[in-house]
Amino acid sequence: MSQRTLLQPAIGALFVLLPWFGGLVVGEVGNDFSHCLDFFYKEIPPTGINAAGYQPICQRHKNQYHFASMYHRQHRAPLFSAYILRLKDSKRPEDIWMYEPQLASSKASPEMKPFDTPVDQNVIESQAVLEDYSESIYTKGHLNPSMHQKTKEDQEATFTLTNIVPQRIGSNSGPWSQLEENVLKKFKTYCTGEMYVITGAMPFKSGAHWINGRVSVPEYMWSAYCCPSFKAKLPESVQMFFPTYAAVGRNDPDSGEEIVPVDVKAKKDVRGYDVKPMPLQTLEDILAQRLGMSISLFDGHCQK
User: What is the value of pTM for the model shown?
Assistant: First the structure.
């Protein structure tokens, strides 16, 4: 993995204060993504993100970096996870949930670690824990899904709560899962190089909603990919999806329809959890309006 230090001036925009985000965190895990830039297109993280209160994490498991996340301590949830999509070569591993020790102590190991019983109080105070999701209507929603990762170790690394947001089962097992499968299919069928993916969460416009008063619940999920190298002759029906495309999915069936309309003909168990595909620029415009951020997810909109 690249070890160079971030020098891009635009990255300074990551630390502009926003009331919703809370105070600036300069923390134990890292001040930037300099150890895991490979997971971003052209090794450039998203710019224009007013990430006050957020902590960059290079997600490390078994002495390797597997993806990157921007984590908010106060909300105990990530803003996004960024990764390179790879075809898996092993079956899904056992769900052994982990946490980030360095969020609890700067002297701790940089490796993610399985939860102990009982959980150390410093861990409970610094991040989400499994008990936060107990007796909740929300599932543990992966931003970087294991199905988009290659090796057993890659897949295991996705089972850290710093990669998880509270997601309704109608979304997690319904339209959002279908989106993840469709992105994987486009990668296998049309990409001739790497596909860079950034998947994130969008808070409620009315302010933070919580589970157990500790973990912020997103109103919407969002995702975008960048596939800079693809087949020269694409079918007309898929040309709009390259080199980049995006989507927003509903995580609250009672939300308004100004961003994602509801398909009234959908099956009852997934109605209201619709996912709307859209151009990358449309997603960035939505994030700008909702979060007050002028965001660029991929350098040059993924144009070579």
Answer: 0.90
